[in-house]
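Attaching the record inline, Q. Sequence:
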Amino acid sequence: VQLQAFGGGLVQAGGCLRLSCAASGSIFSINAMGWYRQAPGKERELVAAITSGGSTNYADSVKGRFTISRDNAKNTVYLQMNSLKPEDTAVYYCNAGASIATMSRYGYWGQGTLVTVSS
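Structure, as predicted:
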């Protein structure tokens, strides 16, 4: 499985960005897709994830600001990020696997995309 992510960049606080991640290859094993992020000096953390059935999971810090969605026909997951804050600055990684609970440990990772939010 290959994951290709798009959409990072530099934005001012209060702005928005949209990330996308397309999966290809042996995608039959993929049920859950999502995004992790890692800020300098911090551990990687789950931002949001979604199953093929549409169940979602969000970090408390992004609830109400970020929305994850998925196009199963295109094997693509999107992360709409609104009301961005400087603390959202991080490298965002696409992740996919059999379940939300296991994808970070046993799943697949895309290349990171940098999101920088200026104050």
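The first strand starts at residue 2 and ends at 6. The CA atoms of residues 21 and 103 lie 15 Å apart.

More tomorrow.
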